[in-house]
Structures are given as structure tokens and as C-alpha cells.
Amino acid sequence: MKVKYFAWVRERIGKAEEMIEPPATVRTVEELIAWLSGQNEAYAYAFEKPKIIRTAIDHAHVKADATIAGAREIAFFPPMTGG
Amino acid sequence: MTSSAANCPVAIRIQEDDFDIAREIAVLTRSRTDIGAVVSFSGLCRADEDSSKIAALTLEHYPGMAEEEIKRHVDEAMSRWPLNGVTVIHRVGRFRPGQNIVLVLTASQHRRAAFEAAEFLMDYLKTSAPFWKKEESATGTGWVEAHARDDEAAARWTRS
Prior knowledge:
The complex is a heterodimer of chains A (about 80) and B (about 160).
Chain A: E1 2-5, H1 7-13, E2 17-19, H2 29-37, H3 41-46, E3 54-57, E4 60-62, E5 73-77
Parallel strand pairs in A: 1-5
Antiparallel strand pairs in A: 1-2, 3-4, 3-5
Chain B: E1 2-5, E2 8-15, H1 21-29, E3 37-44, E4 48-49, E5 52-61, H2 65-80, E6 83-91, E7 93-95, E8 100-108, H3 111-128, E9 131-137, E10 140-143, H4 148-155
Parallel strand pairs in B: 2-6
Antiparallel strand pairs in B: 1-2, 3-8, 4-5, 5-7, 5-9, 6-8, 9-10
Helix pairs in contact in B: 2-3, 3-4
């Protein structure tokens, strides 16, 4: 699946998007965040406070317990500050 | 992104270019005789944030989702209030204090619906549409933190 990162999440990880293949045991958003955090220090830094990270699946906001099955695009970003 | 339902044309644009408020109102009301009220909200880049002076703001967005998320809230506004037209323009890029960032226009037969819908849309634009601001000041650059007061403003509209 494709993963996108925005704002300081993107800056900390050092890339705007990538393709990932998490193991089948990773089923929810919070499990995916935990798995990504284990990749290296950059991911661990980006996701150091997982509760404040917002997630969207296929352009719609989802909660941490949402399933990632069938997702085409998952995005991680900080709380929004537009307007 | 443009659409139309129940005599309520909707225009949603995310752009780097500035907007002309008078022109956007003219487009919204052109050839219409059923509109009795147009509310216009524009948000500008301001220089003072707490104690620091801002030199510039950079706005980043999530292309695709930003338009869709705004559309979802415009649809909800149309279901709550009898609207005759909605325009939402959000700029992205780097801005100096005094420059326009966002425009919301709501048109209705009567003023109350237009006022309330504009406020509703702005509250959700700030808390739910995927845009992020980065500030530049004399002390450096940093991402703007979300304010609890904005979440509280949006929560006012939650229906049980």
C-alpha cells in the first residue's frame, strides 16, 4: 500500500511517500504506526507520540483502531492547522 | 471542484493564486434573484502570534483529500441550512502578513443561514481539512500547533 506523510511527520521521516508491505499481523492503524516506528530512528521520532498523529485512509479521517485491510493509500499527519 | 444541487452551486478551489472577493461574490450571485444574503469570511496571514512576530507562513496541504474533506463539510452545511451557493477557496504556498489565505462565501435567502453556514464551514476547515501552517519568525521556523479552542469551536456543531 502507498503511505503518505505530511508536515512535521514528513520532515522527521525524510520522505513524502513510499510503498510499504507490512506483515499480515499488522491489522489496524495503531499496529501500523507501531510497526513503522520499529523501522528506524526517524520513524520512531515521527511517531514518538502516536496519540497525536492523525490518520486518513483513502482520503477520509479514521481512528487508531480502524482496520487497514483493503486500504490503497494511508496518510499520517499532525493535527490540522489550516483556515 | 464544482457541483450543483438543489439550486446551490458549489465551488471548491485550492490554489496558490490570490482571490478577488468582489469578483467571487459577483460570480456567486450572477443572474440570481433568489439570493437575499451573502456572507463572506476571509482569513489573512497576521504578523502577531502570541509574543512573536511572524515574517511569513507556509501552507501545505494533502492534495485530493483536502478538496474531498471540504466537500463533505459543504454537503453537510447544505443539509443543515437552506443555502443558494457556496464558494470555498484555500490558498497554499508562502504568505506574508496581510495576504489572503482563505475565503468562504455562503449565499442564502436570509442572513441567518448564511452566517451560520459560513461559521460552520470555517470551524471545520480549521480542524478537519488537511492543511498545515509553518511559521517563520526572527527566532526560526516551526510548525503551528493546533489549538484546543478550534476543536471546541468545531464541537459546537456536533449533533447528538
